[in-house]
Amino acid sequence: MSFRYALAKYTTHPERYPDTVLYYDEQVSIIYDAFPKSCVHLLILPRDAEFTKMTPIEAFEDAKRRESMNDAINRATELVRDKFHKKWRRKSSNCDDDDDDDDDNDDEVSILVCCHAVPSLSNLHIHVMTTDFHSSRLKNKKHFNSFATSFAIKFEEFPLQKEDLRRDSRYAESLLKKNMEWMGESYGGSFKKLKSDIDAEFTKKWVARV
Fold first, then answer.
1. CB within 8 Å of 117: residues ≥ 6 apart
2. From CA 35, how far away is CA 43, in angstroms rounded?
3. Rounded to whole angstroms, how far apart are CA atoms 47 and 12?
4. Distances (CA, A) of 201 to 112, 132, 198
5. 127 is catalytic
6. C-alpha dist (Å) from residue 2 to 6, 8, 120, 121, 151
7. Which of 32, 63, 68, 100 is 20–30 Å from 193 (CA)?
8. DSSP at 179
């Protein structure tokens, strides 16, 4: 089977993949992204046989389909926060003290809920992820720009306006070639420098729980 259909099995038989599927019901499966681009990166997969075949831009024109994802998005967001805080704690002047939930600050954990304007996989999926980009799977400019530019359509942007240029796949794909920008700085095409700064910024703020 083509890689484009790699997600199909999690919509048809999620019960068979307990190591990948965190949650499922009749409407959705919530899974770990196999190639996470941040510390915690999950996918929401609608399970309906017709829904799953649609592109995000097409599917989320419909208000009922958008609303049907709200509970799953809330659940996935809480899973992301929980999993992040189980692994990482905020650095502080007393970071040698015992781990304490008071060190956790949800405001410090930014979460992106989005769909790619031109998905690389056939089954419809929504990304729910921390925005730290601290991952060994973030390997190149395309990976970064697919989430750091408007190629990543935030869920609240749906339905797209009729004049939105991202409806044109050629325009959308051109966003992947833009100079990389992060925290107000332009990195041009220097992914190595960007990745180094991303990882340094993360380790400045967070420390792994023992």
1. 56, 57, 150, 151, 152, 153, 166, 169, 172, 175
2. 11
3. 7
4. 18, 9, 5
5. no
6. 7, 11, 11, 10, 24
7. 32
8. P
* Residue the block writes with tokens 């304490």: 100
Please tell me the distance from the alpha carbon of residue 104 to that of residue 207, in angstroms, as a whole number: 11
Strand partners, 88: 208
For residues 205 and 194, what is the distance between their CA atoms, to the nearest angstrom? 17
Segment 147-158, tens digit of pLDDT: 999 999 999 999
Paired residues of 152 in beta bridges: 116
CA angle 54, 40, 120 (to 5 degrees): 30
Q: Which helix (H) or strand (E) element contains residue 206?
A: strand 206-208
Whether 55 contacts 143, CB under 8 Å: no
Q: Using DSSP, state whether 156 is helix, strand or coil.
A: helix
Q: What residue type is assigned to position 93 of the chain?
A: S
Secondary structure class of 34 (helix, strand, coil): coil
**For range 14-39, the mean pLDDT:** 98
From 125, 127, 134, 143, active-site residue: 125
Quick check: bond before 18 cis, omega within 30? Answer: no
pLDDT bin (cut points 50, 70, 90) of residue 187 is very high
What is the per-residue pLDDT across 51-108, written as a single tens digit (0 to 9) for each?
999 999 999 999 999 999 999 999 999 999 999 999 999 998 554 444 444 445 555 7
